[in-house]
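Researcher: Here's the sequence for the chain we discussed earlier.
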Amino acid sequence: MENRVFVIKDMVNQQDADKILNALLEVWGIGRAEVNLNNSNAVFSYDERMASYHDFEQAIIDKGYEILQTEWSSTED
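Model: Thanks. This is the structure I predict for it:
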């Protein structure tokens, strides 16, 4: 599993957070996802055999948001 944290620009209210969470959850291969409005970030894990980082990045961009920063780590199954 890959773990990622996106810091997202202009996520200012719960509606924004919900849009971002739903965008992540719609990508095939998602394991879990959480959005923290106070920190303007989204934390998620996914199966890299089913999806790529770019799939999640594009899902956020398609909703009209910009990713300012990305952090990641990889874990064994």
